[in-house]
Structure formats: C-alpha cells, structure tokens
Amino acid sequence: MTEVNEILMSVLSTIRVPRPGDRVHKDECAFSFASPESDGGLYVCMNSFLGFGSKYVERHHVKTGQRAYLHITRTRKTQKEDDNNSGSGDPPKKKPTRLAIGIEGGFDVEQEQYEEEVKVVLFPDRQEVTSEDLASMPDVVRERVSLSMAGLQAADSVSHTLQVQQWDGEVRQESKHAAELKQLDNGIKIPPCGWKCEVCDLQENLWMNLTDGKVLCGRRYFDGSGGNNHALLHYQQTGYPLAVKLGTITPDGADVYSYDEDDMVLDSKLPEHLSHFGIDMMTMEKTERTMTELEIAVNQRVGEWEVIQESGSTLRPLWGPGLTGMKNLGNSCYLNSVMQVLFTIPDFQTKYVSNIDKVFNEAPSDPTQDFKTQVAKLGYGLLSGEYSKPAPDPGDDPSSSTEPRGDQVGIAPRMFKALVGRGHPEFSTNRQQDAQEFLLHFINMVERNCLSGMNPSEAFRFLVEEKIVCQQSQKAKYTQRVDYIVQLPVPMDQATNMEELQEAERRREEAESSGAPPSAAPRAQIPFAACLAALSEPETLTDFWSSAVQAKTTATKTTRFASFPDHLVIQIKKFTFGLDWVPKKLDVSIDVPDTLDLSALRAMGQQPGEELLPEVAPLPLVTPDVKVKGILGSHGNEEDDSLYSPLLSPVLDDSTVSQLCEMGFPLEACRKAVYYTGNTGIDAAMNWVMGHMEDPDFSAPLVLPGSSSAPGTTPTESLPEEHLVTIVSMGFSRDQATRALRATNNVLERAVDWIFSHLDDLESMDVSEGGRSGGGSEASREPPPGPRVRDGTGSMLLMYSLSLFASFRWVIFNDQKVCASEKPPKDLGYLYFYRRVVE
Where is this region: Disordered (predicted)? Predict the structure, then answer.
C-alpha cells in the first residue's frame, strides 16, 4: 500500500469534504444516464462532486487532472413475494386512499431496496482503496479521505434535492380567516339534508358560505361538469372567504375552502362556525365524495385515458435504438412526450447527437449546467439503444431468466428537467404541465442557445401572413410573423353526431331536475376539415381603426401560410373559454388524416391593383414604470420636444385595462393590448390578447417607441459589435439588430426573443444602414431581411401524435413502456406532428 499512500498524500489537497450548499451529483453521470445501479457503477469526483459513468470518468481525469474518485455501486435486493400474491411475481397493488405520492395510502411509487458499496479509486491506474485500507494509513490521510467519503455518502444528491419524492396533496394549512371569521346574525338555519343551490337549484357539489350561510353550487370543472360557479361568484360579490362543502361534514371534519387563499384549508373553529347556522357536526354523516376522493378518482379515471393507452390490448414490447422509454419523474409525461418526438427529427439528431463527442469535449467545467451538453446527453440516451432493455422485475431473482416485462430500464431525465425548468414558475415544479407550452418553452431555449451555427428549431419555423381589409375603403394591410405551431379551433357546431349530443344534453337536464345521477355523455365527432375551415375562414373585426378613413369601422382578417416548414406542428385547441371565462375542456374525437395538403392556404401577398392602408405609428404611451424622453436637442425646438412630453402624451384607457385584468390576464399584457389597439375598446384589445398569448414576451413590460429602442430618440450607449454581428448572422439587418438590442439593454438573449416577437414592427421600420435605401424606387427594393425560414410544398405526412404520451407511426411511448401500437388513438391527440413530403 506504499504506492497508494504516496498517491493519496500527493492529491490530499484536492480531496474536499462536502459543505452545506455543495451540489453533489451521486445519482447520475454528467454525460450519460449511468448511475450507481448501472454496470460499472458511478464515479464521483472528490473535488468537484460531479458524477461520471465508467465510460466518461477517464475523460474527466485526463481533462482536469483529478485522480481521486468515490466509486459507488448499488445492487438491487431480491424482494420476497407477498403472501397474498397470485403468483405473477408482482405484489398486489393497493387502491390509493390519499391524494399523495410515495407515502402510505398514496399512489404507488416503486421504492426498490439496494445494497451499496463504496471505495476510493485512484486514476489513471484505477487503484482501489476501501474503508478497511484507510485504517492502516497515516492519520492525516485517513482523516481527510474518511471525512470526504462519509460526507459524500451522507449528502443529499442534487436529483434528490430537486425531485419531490413525497407529495401529500392532503396536507392543509390553517386558514388565516378561521380564528376571527365574521358570521352574520341573519337567522339562517341549515337543515341536515335536502340542500340545493339558491340560484340554480343544483343538488350536488354544494358549498355553504361560513359568513352568511348561503348555499351555492361549486366551480365548473374543465370538462364542463361540477357546478355553475355560484359560490365563487358570491365570494367575488361579498368577499366572504370561507365555505364548507355540504355532504362532507362528519365528526372528524369537513372540506373547507378559502377563496381568498385559493386553497383547501383547515378551520380549527369549524364546529363553532357550523353551529352558528344550526349544524351539529357530531351528528352529520358523509353523503358526498370529498375533494380528495374526487381528485383520486380523476387520477384513476377511465374513458379517454383507457383508449389512449389501448387498455385491454396486449401490446408487444419493443427494444433497440430509437425505442427507449423515459421514466416519469412525477407528472413529467408532457416533457417525455415532447422530447421523444423532437429526437426523431433529423435536425435535432444532427445538432446534438451526430457530433456528441465534440459537444462533450467542448463542455464547460460543470457540464450539468450546460444546455447543449444536457440536450445531447438526452438525445443520445434516446437514440443509442443502450438503455432500451427490459427492466428487471423486483420480485425476480436477478440470476433467473424470465420473459421480459413491458417496462424498460429507460432513462430518467432528472438533470435535463432541472436545467430546462430552472427559474420557470411552472416547469420547475412537479405539477402536470401543457405539452404545447413546454414545446414552445424548449424551442425558445434552443433559439437562445443557437445564436450562431445550426439551429434545429428552424425545422418548425414558418411565416404567417395576416391580411386585414378595411370594409369601408377596401384598402388592405399585410403583416407577417414567425410561428412554430398551428392552433386549430374546434367548431363544436360542426359535430357529425349532433343529434346524439342534443339527446344526451336533454337527458342530462332531465336527470338534473329529478336529482338522478347523469349518464355518461357521448364524445363529439368533429371532421378535421371543419377545423381547418374554421382556421382559414375570414374573421370579422369590429371597431377596427382604419387609417384610410380615420375612424372606427369593420374589417376582415384572413390568415395564411407565407411559408411551409419541414415539420408542421398542429395543436387541437381542446380547451376553450365559456361566456363566463371559465376554462372548459372539449371532449372531442377528430378524424385527423395521415396526409394533408395545405397548398390552398398559401399566402398570395399584395394583389395587382390592391391599395394598402396608410402606415400609422402607434400612439405614444406613458406608464408608471417607463418615462418617455423628449428629443429636445435632437431637433432643437420646443415644439418637437412637447410632442414627447409625458404631460401631453395620450394615456391608456384604464377601464379597458381593468376589464382585461379581471379576466385573469397579466397587467403588462393588458397594457400592451390596449396600447397596440390604440385605445379602441375591449373587443379589439381582447382580440389582441387571444392572438398574442403565446408570445415569449406576453407578460413582459412594454417597450415604447418613445424610449431608447426607437429610432430618432436621444442617443444611447454604444452597442456591442459582437452582439450586432450575431443577430445580423441570423438574417436580420443591422438596423433591426440595433433596435432589438436597444430595446433590451444590450442583453443578447433578450434581444433575440424581442426580435422574433416584434416582426411586424421590424417590417415597417425604415432601413438606413446595410439594408434598403430610402431613396430607391419601389420596384428596385428587395424584401426586408428577416428570420431564416424554410419553404416547400404544402403536402404533409402525419408522423407523430401526442396526448399524455407520444405515438409514432405507430409505436406507443408511455413513459418506460415502448410497444407496437395496434389501435393508434389518432382521433384523441392533442398535438400532431407532420413532415413535409418531398416530391
């Protein structure tokens, strides 16, 4: 051991003991999905605390010179078969009784037991040092190495810290209103049964307000069931915060909701509050399901979920390259589905997987925080086939050979999920999210991280042309914008089974009036052609401000494709808003075709003899957080300066802003809507909001033309030349790049986001430097530079569909299960991915 002693003495200064706050990666390799359970185990650098599989630890040693690594290996213990088991090898699953994950009574999460072995390995010769070996070494070596080993073993791994392993949806906090709740002496006494809503006579999902005793129905759910929101409306009118769900009151408690705190809460004075309205809590019996039971039922729901999973069919498991499952990290199916699809697209494969060695060699000192490295790691994990093999059965002896199960070893994208979700209010959590929103979020990250070189998101990028025609002057306005997804509306009035739906609605109303339970409603059958027609038909704009007639009038807007992408994403808008602005999910089946020809939707541009609406700049705007600078000195007279004076600048219509805010939209978005529609009223502003909800800067503060971002204002600080060159290399002019950087305080990533969300403004700006000359003839002018987009035919072939997981032509990817699909549920998808057919 003399040689080992000498090596340890020479590297002792590089061996660190983890301190609070240190990031310890002892569950996952920085470059692969190797873990302590994998063949070869995991090597944790005893200096940086980064983890590496056996394939990549040598690379780290050569690059950094680090020699000491803690080698962790885990071997799964054999689990004894449950006494009540039927002999299948799997213990019987208990029905969940709590809205929780990873705790007794909650939803089942496999917690496998492992035996762990640790030792120090010294590179490059991979000499091993065990805890027993340390006993015979000098005190200074033994103490430092032992403390480091113990600290690494005791430290929580980064993945453990970020992932919520135990989530209990039933943990409720005491309401801040409970102790001093005001109760009116209005003489109301509530009977022990026979309740109904005081507004609509609904007899289920009833809530009693604990301030005035009003009995009203609960919220309407996304699928249209539930109540009619009368209890919520009562709170909005009165401000009375607490309500109890009738039918859930027992001697042990009841469901209490706080509208002000927007959550289920505890009320320590509930017996007293109920007694005020004549309810004896100790004699009440449960007659309705609690909110927890309702949510558990939703998580165990059948119907569409069963169809999507192809339940009832024995599906054939698939293995091999490109057929790798992904573990669900707790409501991460949205991420799994999107990433499975993206890495079947050649652009993403080329960018991140084909040159993976180059990506890894150029990785920074902490590759766990590098976007390109982690995306490449995920792509290789999905495509290589290294992790596409049967998962061992916890009930089987590891040495026995049995028929493989459908589950795979798969990959757990913890490091990737933590990185792409960092700082995001939704994707950083373990809550379920929207696949379309995540796709746009990820594309936005790709755009920011591909400011030079190949950009795979170009495969989805296309131009949309919007044509607005003033009906009074017949003059037109053309604008173009970049988009990545086509959102198809669902025209419910075009259902082919309308008679069946109307009969079901009649039966529902009868059941509601008689108090009988409603029967299952049929699913609406909507032709895909009707959805496409709804997208392409002209939209009527009322209260349109026409620059030609200088007044409000009616206009029509048509939307067409100015280019067709290599890969077209279509979202079926299954969520809509009712008249009361409550979101509602549409239960629909749509006959999505395998092939699609969109050539008829190609934009034609300005037509011969067609006159354009005069260009008018938006009104200046003053907001509390932005001061518009005057231009005195630039033009040299007070008259010009007064035009930009905050005292004389038009302001927003506060009533319109307030109406939009009351609908739940962000304040800054509401300000933008009113500003960009020229204070023309709620309808125009609402149309703007609905058309820009997916903009990356939808909620960002408004950048004003009168600020430093506009041409002709006061001089600003010099712009970084390297930022200008980067943006110009993406296909934009120097003036456009300058405007974007000035609008975002010279922050390159923000400037790129800004430029893609302000294409309409950029198209109309005058180009003086490196672009079009203001004095040239109209015929000699070239089209303004813009984002790079690909174009081709409008013929498309359906390749993939997403619901809660992905189906490829036609393989079903359901987390760690990858199987050949027998009945692909194409009609129930949410996102559809088409590939352009090359003739």
Answer: 72-98, 386-408, 499-522, 766-792
